[in-house]
Amino acid sequence: MRKSTYQWAFVVAAAAVISGCSTFHQEEVDMPWNTVPTVVQSTIQAHEYGGTVAGKIEKETTKTGIVYEAKVKGTDGKCSEVKVAEDGKLLKYKACKE
After folding, report:
1. Count of alpha carbons within 13 Å of 61, Cβ hemisphere only?
2. Domain ranges of the chain
3. Is the pLDDT of residue 47 over 70?
4. Three-class SS string for 14-55?
5. Is the CB of residue 47 less than 8 Å from the CB of residue 91?
6. Res. 18 pLDDT band, cuts 50 70 90
7. What is the pTM of this model?
8. Which top CATH class is 24-95?
9. Distance CA 9, CA 27 (A)
């Protein structure tokens, strides 16, 4: 019984060490529109719906890859957030929190 308790404690401790080592520093950089890849620009423009990009584009480096985030101001004045992968795939489109 005592041996299994120690084994369990070892497993928990090892898991804690491993999860601590797997952290990833997420980096965000503001980019001017003309430096954003063309395929990403196309996806963002396809989701402007007559509006315009408000400000710079954020480039985020995450565990899964590079993600571009843009705030789009619609013709109705409402803000939307568009997230696009480096390959141009739309990841998220939602209303901004204001």
Report:
1. 6
2. 24-95
3. yes
4. HHHHHHHHCCCCCEEEEECHHHCCHHHHHHHHHCCCCCEECC
5. no
6. low
7. 0.70
8. alpha beta
9. 35
